[in-house]
Amino acid sequence: RPRSHTVTTTSSSFTANLSASSSTLAYDREFLRTVPGLLMVTEIVLGLLVWTLIAGTEYFLYPAFGWVMFVAVFYWVLTVFFLIIYMTMTYTRIPQVPWTMVGLCFNGSAFILYLIAAIVDASSVTKDLDNHNYNSWAASSFFAFVVTSCYAGNTYFSFISWRSRTLQ
Length: 168
Fold this sequence. Notes:
It comes from Myiagra hebetior. The protein is mainly α and 168 residues long.
């Protein structure tokens, strides 16, 4: 004898929320036209140069260059992360985080640690150490100081932003 089959369909709130949240995904192109945005892109490009110039050598034989590699790679990854946060305007969706303070702490620590790393890098570069790696290490030292100045600029702009928020 034939059985009757009842099919029940339900609508999931997950798909409705997914489509609603993906339609509100923002992209801020204007951020790259600001001075902090340009500095951040410069930090990413030149920071990549710093750690690739060192990574192409036998840096692991010299602890000083290991420190420079740590700082360069650590802040390169975090800067890419923050660029994505600013470009997608994720900071507007997480208002519980004090983003101006986070930016100030990030840029300030990057400036200080990159300055130390650049000084260590520059003081470790000698022709006596390893002649065939000299040019890479010297170039990485130069670019480390340039990246340091970019982080100093972003620290200044982060301080101005933080200061204007705390005075309100």
